[in-house]
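hey so i finally got around to running the thing on that chain from the lab meeting. sorry it took forever, my laptop kept dying and i had to restart like 3 times. anyway pasting the input first so we r on the same page abt which one it is
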Amino acid sequence: MPSPNVVHEPARETPVIAEVDVLVAGGGPAGIAAALAAARVGARTMLVERYGYLGGMITGAYVIAILGVGDGHVPVARGITAELRRRLEPFGAVKPRNDSGDYDVDPEVFKWQAQELLEEAGVRLRMHTLACAPLMEGGRVAGVLVESKSGREAIRAKVVVDASADADLAFRAGCPCDDQTHEVTLALLVEGVDDEAVKDFQRRHPEEYDEIMAEAKRRNGGGLPRRNRLIKGIDCADAEQLTRAENEMRRDAFRSLMYLRQNMPGWEGARIPVTFPQFGVRLGRRLRGLYVLTDEDIRGGRLFEDGVARLGLYFPDWGPTYKLPGLRWDVPYRALVPESVDGLVVVGRCVSCDYFAGNTLRLIVPCLATGQAGGTAAGLAALAGVAPRGVDAAQLRAALLAQDVYLG
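ok and heres what got predicted. didnt touch it at all, straight out
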């Protein structure tokens, strides 16, 4: 008797819409860098992205701070990280943050220029397309099954780069993964607040002001709606939890806003013109690869023979710690490669690392760096006809040095 909890789908023929050397799943910073790097070593490259724009957290959640370019004293990250800055500067889309190279970007210009860069490099873009599952041949990933308005389709690839942020393809290919809950943020904008009127009311009626503010914060989880709301303990690979969290944050923000409009002088004309289209997600599921990079490795400045990204940032939890001048540490290539599944490279915040190291690796610059390394490796593997684990680390490092990647 059929189980009531299972639906048996009929066999189907899925059209193959492309055959490429390298397929990159995910168009965030790591995916952009991976696709650029793979194309530039000569691999026929395609990138699929579930939204209609590139940039991931930069453009979807307005995480516009490009942190970790330097170690707090001198610039470290180069390669595609530096290229993006040079590309954006003529459009006035870069605002320096400090003397070590960190900067903010204009997210809309970033969308445009990321697209232009990829198309100039010959990358085939497929937007509005979700990479659903790996196409498996034995123990090897041979492509990806995708879903879109065009239906279910397949893309064959010699090597797939998982830049999904949560190791979605690696997990579904059977790779061991680590998964822990973390924080999510719904960013929004508030306009129309008369700050002078608010200050005047606070000065004349301090006790009433404090009561109103306390109630407004209570209705919004402890903070005013003009600040980003954060919820802890969310499994970022669980659609039910993501749905509940986003609905709660949006509902609470508007409840608090309506209360302030009715009770706080200066807030009468306040409005929320936009809540950003993507959650700000810090950490989720991560690959457990050939090497698990640890927080101790980062703090100790560990260098590896197969190091493919050398960085100078240490970001243990809530703020960049620039207290270790001269700190340098490597991401080894083994942290981008699964233990047993072939045909797959993982980049971005879901590379193989422990939970605390993930707080540093989730930042945009480490994502760009692992993306460039993983995309280069994928391109070299595809062109040589070898599995990613078969790529010679010395050859990979030489290719990255030729791309002006900093390796010390």
